[in-house]
Amino acid sequence: MARTDEEWRQELSPEEYRVLRQAGTERPYTGEYWDTHTEGVYQCRACGTELFTSKEKFDSHCGWPSFWAPLAEGKVRYIHDRSMGMDRVEVRCATCDSHMGHVFEGEGYETPTDQRFCINSVSLRLVNAEER
Question: Which of 88, 91, 107, 120 is the most exposed, having the fewest neighbouring CB atoms within 10 Å of its CB?
Fold first, then answer.
């Protein structure tokens, strides 16, 4: 999905642009979905690709929406991220290359994968199960 920087700026709000296109992070406990328990599918806010579902969402108490797996392999891609003095794995939408957040492993959560996909709310759009 090829768009120019100017096209992204026209389509996205300034905060969406900062997070999705510049790999920013929203402040914890401020996003729309960090404490949501609504059933549905979470799409990439930039392109609409379905990335996560409420079935894989769990309460990690970190201040961002957390999922133990993406909807399916190939929906997201992973980049080794050494920014800000940390060694992390960045999660991006495989369709439009927008920044979603990061994935962490081995934190001891009792989930099937022991992974925590820590995703910015502003990177997502929830489509309720009733709307599908």
Answer: 107
The residues that bridge with 92 in the sheet, in sequence order, are 77, 99
User: For a pLDDT cut of 90, what percent of the chain falls above it?
Assistant: 86
CA 67 to CA 53: how far, in whole Å?
8
Q: How far apart are CA 80 and CA 6, in angstroms?
A: 27
Whose structure tokens read 């920014």?
83
The gap from C-alpha 49 to its chain's centroid, in whole angstroms, comes to 11
Q: What is the pLDDT of residue 132?
A: 65
Write out pLDDT tens, residues 61-108.
999 999 999 999 899 999 998 876 778 899 999 999 999 999 999 999
- Asked about 118 being catalytic, the answer comes back as yes
Q: Which of 44, 93, 96, 118 is catalytic?
A: 118
pLDDT at 86: 75
